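Researcher: Re-running this chain for the archive, since the previous output was lost when a drive failed. Same request as before.
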Amino acid sequence: MMQLIVNTQYLRSGRNLEVPFRILLGSDGSTAELVCNQILRMIPGKRLVCAGEWDEKPVAVKIFLSSVRARQHSDREITGINALKNAGIKTPALLLQSNLQQDNTPVLVFQRVMPALNPHEVFDMAETDEKRSELLKRIAVVIAEQHETGLKQKDLHLGNFLISDNDIYTIDGDTVDTGQTGTPLPKAMSLNNLGLFLAQLNPNFDHLFSAVFQAYTAKRSWPPDSSLFNQLLKEVKSQRKNRSKKYLHKIFRECTSFVCYKSWSSYMVCNRNSYYGEMKKLLSDPDSAIGSSRLLKDGNSSTVALAEVNGKLLVIKRYNIKNFGHALKRCPRNTRAWSSWRNAHRLELLGIPTPKPIAFLEKRWGPFRSTSYCISEYIDGTDLYRLITSDRSKEINIEALSIKFGEMLKLLADANMSHGDFKATNFIVAGEKLYIIDIEGMREHSCRWGLRKSLKRDCRRFTKNWKDMPEVARIFQDQIRKIKL
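Model: Regenerated structure tokens:
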């Protein structure tokens, strides 16, 4: 049943808006009714983006809710969209500029591009590098068109575009910098912006960048120049570092992706999409959940259980406090669950497979930390040691596994990261993927010497797994030597 016409207070009320709902628009003495039937994006108290209907047409609606800067963001959106349109760059048409009738909250109504695909989803579902490359090259040509007309998007990523048949539309005019409209962007500024776009992809896809750069330079009519490509790669590396820093701050606070709760006695962060039903109950009493679940490990330092939560298998890992002395030593430091949560997200940014982090929880007494819990998805696989030493060993392509291990090691080295415990049981083989677990001890190194020392120690520990299997050890050592630590 459709709700009655809602007000601004309701729209600002939080993330639990019920659709469909209606809003009344009014400007220049005229009124219009608009139906919102799907929420596309929400930043509580700031902005709401909906799919809906207006005048019997499918539309996308942006409602600017900030009590301080709503008009500024609305005007900036209009300026950016008009600049794109005047430059001949495809963007959804602005159909109506209006306000909520009750209090002049700015509302912009856009043509809804149909059919439309999200480039993020297209990229993630692409089965080959060729398809991924073609998508990136098409978007790079649009970015080149923007730069050639003096425009750039300050927050450039795949989500700034829509794909409809053979067309690519640029959206989100609020982020369009129009300061140099009419004058092609200089090379340094262009490479900085293109580097920002490519930095959103994890390093597994760096090998696609050469073809993407060629598509971009061809559109800009730049002659081939390897020094410019090297400059682009430096930009990507710098932008990734900045992106990682911002994101790793975001995962510890309330935001679009995460629910965060802090009190004198606890601190909890959970993926917003998972925070419902049985998950809320689990986080309120994790020890009971562990007690009623299947134990995978019951050790002195940690306890691991497998639980079904909201129809999904999850792993609950409790980091135990061994005794009073251990409690005194640990209480002022970040908990191991905190480190595991952070490292899991770091690995996701790097494209290194690890169980998806779902939530973490710390028991506290004010600023002092005690027992902590990390909850992650369950990977249905076999650890590397058990797999290679099993009766199935002759069926296993150890060479292929060693290549995956080498790729993982290189990504860690490039990110200045070491693991700390390369036991073969800390690698899980599931399907065609090699996952790494027990990541609470991972660390980032500020100097190359410290990184090399730690990674060599990791590799010695890994090779030790195969002391009775010299041929297996040789295969993995060949991959380690390729990294040139």
